[in-house]
From TrEMBL:
PANTHER family: ARGININE/DIAMINOPIMELATE/ORNITHINE DECARBOXYLASE (PTHR11482), ORNITHINE DECARBOXYLASE 1-RELATED (PTHR11482:SF6). Belongs to the Orn/Lys/Arg decarboxylase class-II family. Its cofactor is pyridoxal 5'-phosphate. It comes from Streptomyces aurantiacus. It is an enzyme of class 4 (lyase). One of its GO terms (molecular function) is ornithine decarboxylase activity. CDD domains: PLPDE_III_ODC. GO terms for biological process: putrescine biosynthetic process from arginine, via ornithine. This is ornithine decarboxylase. PROSITE patterns: ODR_DC_2_1 (PS00878). The modification N6-(pyridoxal phosphate)lysine is found at K49. Keywords: Decarboxylase, Lyase, Pyridoxal phosphate. Its EC number is 4.1.1.17. The active site is at C335 (proton donor).
Amino acid sequence: MYVDADARLSAALTAASSDRIVFDLTGIEGQYERLLSELPDVDVRFAMKACPVDEVLTCLADRGAGFDAASPTEIEQALRTGVPVARIHYGNTVKSDANIAEAHRLGVRTFATDSVQDVAAIAAHAPGSRVFCRLATSGDGALWGLSRKFGCSRDDAVRVLDAARAAGLTPAGLSVHVGSQQMTCEAWRQAFDLLADTLVALHEQGIAVDHINLGGGLPALGYLDRHGTRLDPPLDKMFAVIRDGMEQLRAVNGAPLDFVMEPGRHLVADHGAIRAHVYRLTSRQKSDGERVHWLYLSSGKFNGLYEMDQLSYRLVFPRHVDGPQVSAVVAGPTCDSDDAYGSGHHPVPVPEAVTSGDPVWILAAGAYATSYMTQGFNGFPPLPYTCVRDTSSLAGTDTTLAGTETTRGN
Ligand SMILES: Cc1ncc(COP(=O)(O)O)c(C=O)c1O
C-alpha cells in the first residue's frame, strides 16, 4: 500500500536527527502525473531553477519531462539526467555571447528571447536555431510578478520574430510567464488574450509559429501568506481556464500549435520539507513599550527559506503538538534583519513550551530552497538534502522509505 505524501515526508522528518531538506520523489512524480492528466496536450519542461537536485531532475526526466534551463551550467546538469537535448531549451532571455555559444556547443537549439539585440547574438553564436519570444505580462495576482525584467510588447514581439527570420533563425514560438505563485485565473485569461492578439499580428507579417510556451506560475497549495493565512489558489479553475485558452489559441492560429509549459514550484514545493531546530523563543520589550515574542530557528532566509519575504510556512513542532501557544515572529539564525517571516512584522502562533534544540518541520519548502541557499552566510552552511521514495512493491503491503543524504556541491 502506498503511503500518502505527507506521511512519507513525516516519516523521513521524524527519522532525521539533524537539519536537512527532504524531497519526496514519489510525491513529485505523482504531482507530475497529475499535471499531465490536467493538461494532457502540454509538453512539460521543468524549470530547473526551482529545484536543481539531481535525483529530482532524474525522476522527472525518467517520466518524460524536459527542462527549462537558465544557463549553460543548468544545461549540463540537465544532460546528466540522460534527457535528450531536444527536450532542453534555454529559457532565459538574459544571456551573454559566451552563454549562447556554449549552449549551442552542448546541443541546445531552442532559445528564449525578447529583444532584437539578443536575436542578433543568437544568430551569430547559435546559427539556425529556433527562438521563441517572451511577451511581458503585468505579474498582477502573483506573489512574485516577473514583469519588469523580462518580455516585450505584442508589437515588439513581431519585430523580434521578424528580425529572427531575417537572421536565418526559425521564429518558432511565443512565451509568457504570469508570475510565480499566481493566485488568479484572470492573469491566465489576460495572458491568453495577449497571445491570441500577438498570433494575429504575426500572421499579418506572414509569420506562423509552431508552439506556445505557457511558462511557469502554477501555484503550490501548502503555503501561508505573510500573516499566516493559508493561500488557497483556485487550481482546478486555473486548469480549466488554461485548457480553454489553448483551444482559443488553436482556433486563432488555424494551423497546428504545440504547447510547452515550464512549471517550477508547482511540481516540487509541496513535496519538500525542512527539518530544522529551535534556537530560542524569546520575549523582548521594544523601545515603544510593546513586548514581542521572537522564535529563532536554525533555518531562515539564507539557508532554505529565501522566499520568506512573501510567505510564511506551516511549522510542525513534533514534541509540542498540544498546549498553549504564543504569537511570535519567526526568524532565521543570521544577523540580517531581513531573515524573518514577513521581514519581522507578522507574528504567527507557536507553542509556548518550545526549547532550544527542539526539532521543527517547515512544510511546503521544496521550491527555490536549495537553489537560493547561500554558501554559508554568517557561517551557517547550506542544508544537506535527503531524497526519499516509496519503495513498496505493487503487490505488497509493506512500505519502506529509502533515502540517502547528500550535500550539494557548487
Ligand atoms: C522563464 C521561467 N520559466 C519558469 C519559471 C518557473 O516559475 P514557477 O516556479 O512559478 O513555476 C521561472 C521562474 O522564475 C522562469 O523565470
